Every structure is written in C-alpha cells, then in structure tokens.
Amino acid sequence: YPLTAGPGVLVAIQTVAGATFHDATTTFPDEPISPFGIPPQVDNAIYFGFDKALPPTMPASFVFHFAGPPNPGGSHHSAAVAWEYLNGFGWWSPLKVEDSTRSFSSDGAVQITGPAQMRQQVLGRVPAPLFYIRVRYTSGQYDSPPKLLAAAWNAVEAEQSETATSSFKIAAGTVATGPAPAPGQLASVLF
User: Fold this and answer.
1) What's the rounded Cα separation, in Å, for the pair 178 and 130?
2) Which end of the chain is more exposed for a tag (fewer CB within 10 A), N or C?
3) By the 8 A CB rule, do 59 and 88 touch?
C-alpha cells in the first residue's frame, strides 16, 4: 500500500457487547482487547474514535497485531466483519476498505478510504464527541476468539528483507526495557 497519512488522531477505543460499551482507551495496549467478546457474538463491535473526520476519497491505513499465528493470507474461511462509519444522518454505513486481517483475526493492514460525510457524536462511555468507525462481527465462526494486541493509525506493514546492522549511541544511565525481538518477530518503531 502507498502510505497516505490521514488527518486526525485516534482518541478512543471502545468495544460493545449487546448494548454495553466498554472504554478501553486508557488500558489498551497494556490489556489486550477481545473485540467481539469471548465467545465472539454477532453484532458485537470495536469502535475507533478520531478527533477529525476521515477526509473524503483519501486513503489512510491502520495496522493491527493479534495474538496467534501469522496471517496465512486470503479471507477467513468462516468469520466475516463489516467496516462501518457513523454518517451525517447518524446511521452506520459501509466503509470502503482493503482488509488483510482475515476478518480481524490475524496481523495485517486495513486501508480505509474516507467517506463523503462523517458525524461527530458522543458514543458509549467516552464523553467527548468524536468521529467513529467500527468493525462489527457479522457472521461465521472464529477458530479462536480474536485478541487485539496493538493498533497503529497512519501506519504501514514493513518487513526487513536484508540483514542490516547499525550502531546507536545511548546516553549514559539509559535503561532499556522490554524483550529484544527475535528474528521474524513483529516489532514497532515510532518516529
């Protein structure tokens, strides 16, 4: 995918099971999210709230990392999701997406093309009016419930294809945290 950075900041992440919203904004990614519940239930969803509307016809991308085996490619054999946005009339409408996450179950990227008009609204447990998109579980069965470990807005997937080494000067007294990634393991870099 070409990288086009959409305006706005991802401000809130919520899930809904039945009619009950759960605000995961302050706990994610420290606490992974089961976006459709355990077990997943049809019409449960995960909501992403932005401070600005996605611009019409401009693609932007999300990259997702899930617990479990790597993405084998193709669509999921059974489970299906719908990507939707809150339109100007306050209804949920389909979003134009290219989704490589196998129905939100495997690592991958989702390229989203902004809709003509989004509605800013207070939704669920987040008191601020935001522009929301959601991923709603619509049908089928998952092999195991999806568990979302990371989500990055305005990101792309990248794979190092050649061995590379670099030296970096680290200030005295700096304490490194976290495990070192193993070869082939997903790693995130923020700039």
Assistant:
1) 33
2) C
3) no
pLDDT at 9 exceeding the cut of 70:
yes
Distance set, CA 183 to CA 159, 163, 187 (Å): 11, 10, 10
Residue with the two structure tokens 């700039």: 191
Spatial CB neighbours of 55, under 8 Å, sequence gap ≥ 6: 6, 7, 114
Identify the H or E element spanning 124: none
- Residue 89 has what DSSP assignment? T
pTM of the model: 0.81
Q: How many Å from the N-terminal Cα to the C-terminal Cα in the chain? A: 19
Q: Which residue has the tokens 């992974």?
A: 32
Q: Looking at 18-125, which runs of residues are DSSP E strands?
A: 20-23, 45-50, 59-66, 80-86, 92-94, 96-99, 108-113, 120-123
Tokens of 50: 């932005």
